[in-house]
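Changelog-linked ticket: copper (II) ion example.
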Amino acid sequence: MRLLRAIFVWCNLFGVFELSFGAKERNYEFDVEYIYKKPDCLEHVVMGINGQFPGPTIRAEVGDTLVINVTNKLSTEGTVIHWHGIRQRGTPWADGTAAISQCAINPGETFQYKFEVDKSGTYFYHGHYGMQRAAGLYGSLIVDLPKSQREPFHYDGEFNLLLSDLWHTSSHEQEVGLSSAPMRWIGEPQVYTFNFLYIQKDTSCSFNLLLFY
Ligand SMILES: [Cu+2]
């Protein structure tokens, strides 16, 4: 019995040691700003991160801690980023929902999000203030199993799909229309985006599908 208990304690200790030994802290600097991009054949102002639209992909392993310093480089608006699907156990203040878990980050200020990713999956992050997600503030967040664990299925490759839609009117114009009386409906989006690919719905442009980069 004593031997069994010793083995149990040893395994537990080893498990804890292995978990903390393998987990990493991953650091990101995100500068949120409006940028000019040409997601279709027309130039638009979109929300970007570090000059990219969609924002950079975050990739981590289960047990890792993400440390993301988000700097608001917008001149007149607050911003936050919500980590969609992340459980935020023990870190509810890092959930990134304006007026719920935090005040919006003021222009020129930086907020540090620090949280653990405790479950594998394909997630995404997005702006959670006003119409900022529709303006383009989003990106992928992928949490892999630790290398020591096998996924329960086989596959030949991996392709991450990030779907969204895009209007030719600005998010500010959409917001004013939606809150007007009578309301002005924003209508259907003009463009569907698939990561760096897009499909244009109208035919005023000379192409319908284009490789974005
Ligand atoms: Cu969400």
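Closing comment: Example verified and attached. The CA atoms of residues 125 and 192 lie 18 Å apart. DSSP finds two helices and twelve strands in the chain.
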